[in-house]
From TrEMBL, chains A, B:
<feature type="domain" description="Aspartate/homoserine dehydrogenase NAD-binding">
    <location>
        <begin position="7"/>
        <end position="117"/>
    </location>
</feature>
<dbReference type="GO" id="GO:0004412">
    <property type="term" value="F:homoserine dehydrogenase activity"/>
</dbReference>
<dbReference type="Pfam" id="PF03447">
    <property type="entry name" value="NAD_binding_3"/>
</dbReference>
<dbReference type="Pfam" id="PF00742">
    <property type="entry name" value="Homoserine_dh"/>
</dbReference>
<keyword id="KW-0521">NADP</keyword>
<keyword id="KW-0028">Amino-acid biosynthesis</keyword>
<dbReference type="InterPro" id="IPR022697">
    <property type="entry name" value="HDH_short"/>
</dbReference>
<keyword id="KW-0486">Methionine biosynthesis</keyword>
<dbReference type="InterPro" id="IPR005106">
    <property type="entry name" value="Asp/hSer_DH_NAD-bd"/>
</dbReference>
<feature type="domain" description="Homoserine dehydrogenase catalytic">
    <location>
        <begin position="125"/>
        <end position="302"/>
    </location>
</feature>
<comment type="similarity">
    <text>Belongs to the homoserine dehydrogenase family.</text>
</comment>
<dbReference type="InterPro" id="IPR019811">
    <property type="entry name" value="HDH_CS"/>
</dbReference>
<keyword id="KW-0791">Threonine biosynthesis</keyword>
<dbReference type="InterPro" id="IPR036291">
    <property type="entry name" value="NAD(P)-bd_dom_sf"/>
</dbReference>
<comment type="pathway">
    <text>Amino-acid biosynthesis; L-methionine biosynthesis via de novo pathway; L-homoserine from L-aspartate: step 3/3.</text>
</comment>
<keyword id="KW-0560">Oxidoreductase</keyword>
<protein>
    <recommendedName>
        <fullName>Homoserine dehydrogenase</fullName>
        <ecNumber>1.1.1.3</ecNumber>
    </recommendedName>
</protein>
Length: 372, 372
């Protein structure tokens, strides 16, 4: 199957390398016929072009891989490709979170596939696991660590007793954090993946108005306090469904030190789904990087080449009900910790914003319920 | 798709319950048309029969689920069903480990599928993950905790400071261990799953002559010693491949307390594969139980109903090379611990057998290499 790759950054190069290796029968049948690069960039490979129409008008090119990142022009290019009857595979969580319904609907109209395994949790086959679990079970809870940068920073803070700024600087030096780390440390990236995952898990289009917490104001003394109480902390997303209601939150979460989550090292991800007969299923792996993310893109390409259709329907329309994620939360404000019992993450996010007006160092987190 | 279930024990009932629930479109299309029970057993459901020919001669029954357990008559019935052109799904690790090549070859001849997701790690989609990872990558290492009973016993010993016998008795009372626990605590069950997993991962038929260790002689004082050294212990399998050589071992393994493996609670399983571009992928879930194992069986049925074919080829013929698993091992003999560096598990298993002739309480385990 001939494919086109739009964008040749980290993930695009990873996809190209895996296709060049031809390590298996399945990968040997995929050919990168076009690589779309920006006008003015040097064409270092003969398959490179800066003319999208060359790709759109090539009838032999059945599938377009979008790995440019960002909302535009990715959104426009994906729609153009789908409308030309080409399957689309993307690794771009921002554009999927923003336009999932439009992409799925356009793909359905043109009888092609829109796949996005690489948009959540990198190399972990998370989307596939969700869809395959849904063949049998109702999924009522998903959760997990979906941002490797935040995990790396926390893990370094715990293991090397660093403060946040030092850990962030080291993560930037190691290539795990970007120059502007906001999307990772403020929970935006995790929120994109939470929206995509919950939309699939619960068959609905989740909107963006759920509470999003981050780790920007996590201090060494917080960690020391948590560890003294037998807990570590991770930036987690959690989503629940009950009948026709759902809720999502992205919140720093205290967890027992002997939980799997508390022991996720470096920049790894750990994702969880709970099915009605399957029970708890957790997947751990590389959530980023050229080859793991490239691997996820290629797994989608192979599924398309094999004519395997997964059902990413988004039909039902659920209502957001913040009470589904009621729990116990902790707020550090003016050097004092206060615990709030049985409140919604929305309420806590509002309370936190108040606290932030007085003191730039406030921090909030979910804490385990008694007995957990 | 009409199916027949051979056997109505724990797993058979789990499969039947999931089909009766009809929670999804996929499960609603599966119908348990026959349930085969032993002669003399009471037929509590109208679909029950003690006549296998009723099933074999029913042209509408396209798929047979074997959940009787044991080698015979399961082996004979599976072959009969395949030769009648019926797909076969089994949860029976003993019969798959003993006859995998014959089953795959017979299925190939009759152009039907032979599937066995439920034979390894219960509800964890381990076989599917292995096969799908192999679409892209060479798999060079697999490992993991594949026996929930042994894990439950060790976890209870650690958390409640119990001796082995007390933990075993409690596991039996809780329904996690059988009256004769040998297969679980002596590593036989893990060895079956290791053979099946390694055969698929490495495209070869692995033979049974690899070293198999167990936890029968693990003592409270061993655990205390390990914990004082920052380690816990788990009964693990490990298999490696390099060029045309492979090795497998089932060995109690010391692991850092902050590893995921050391924090697997209760009777859960944790399985790992390492792919050339994917990196490390770990899956955690329920390794046993009616509904999780039934879920794995039903996932195979749905794949068959959807006409999805995974490639469980077993072609290459590799040589066993014990040196691939060389490492550092610990032996407790006459109350003294001794460490052996850079030896094969075979050599250690022999050394352990010698130690056992003198003292019934000897114990051996793999220890992390320096720097790990």
């Amino acid at each position: 199957m001939k494919i086109a790759i739009l964008g040749f950054g980290t993930v695009g190069r990873g996809v190209y390398e895996i296709l060049q290796r031809k390590e298996t029968n399945d990968t040997a049948q995929l050919e990168a016929a076009h690589i779309f690069i920006r006008k003015g960039k040097e064409k270092t490979l003969s398959v490179m072009t800066d003319d999208l129409d060359v790709i759109l008008e090539d009838p032999e090119c059945r599938c377009v891989v979008e790995v440019m990142g960002g909302i535009e022009p990715a959104h426009t290019y994906i729609l153009k490709a789908l409308r030309k009857g080409k399957h689309v595979v993307t690794a771009n969580k921002a554009v999927v979170a923003a336009h999932l319904e439009e992409f799925l609907e356009t793909a359905r109209q043109h009888q092609v596939q829109f796949r996005f395994e690489a948009s959540c949790a990198g190399g972990i086959p998370w989307i596939r696991s969700l869809l395959q679990a849904k063949r049998i079970d109702a999924i009522h809870t998903i959760s997990g660590i979906f941002n490797g940068t935040a995990n790396y920073i926390i893990d370094q803070m715990v293991k090397k007793d660093l403060d946040f700024e030092t850990a962030l600087t080291q993560a930037q030096a190691a290539g795990y954090a970007e120059a502007d780390p906001s999307a990772d440390i403020d929970g935006i990236d995790t929120a994109n993946k939470a929206m995509i995952s919950a939309s699939l898990a619960f068959d609905t289009i989740c909107t963006r108005d759920f509470p999003i917490g981050g780790i920007r104001h996590l201090q060494k003394r917080d960690l020391q306090t948590f560890l003294q109480n037998g807990c570590s902390i991770r930036l987690m997303m959690e989503a629940r469904k009950e009948e026709d209601r759902y809720a999502i939150a992205v919140v720093p979460t205290l967890i027992a030190r002997d939980s799997l989550e508390a022991n996720v090292p470096d920049n790894f991800n750990l994702t969880t789904l709970v099915g009605s007969t399957l029970g708890e299923l957790k997947l751990y792996g590389q959530g980023a990087g050229a080859l793991p993310t490239g691997n996820a893109v290629v797994s989608d390409l192979i599924a398309i080449a094999r004519n395997e259709w997964d059902d990413a329907f988004v039909n039902h329309h659920l209502h957001y009900d913040a009470s589904l994620l009621k729990g116990d939360y902790l707020l550090r404000e003016n050097d004092r910790y206060q615990v709030y019992h049985d409140v919604t993450p929305q309420w806590m996010a509002d309370r936190y914003r108040e606290a932030m007006t007085g003191d730039a160092g406030a921090f909030w987190a979910k804490i385990p319920a008694k007995g957990e």
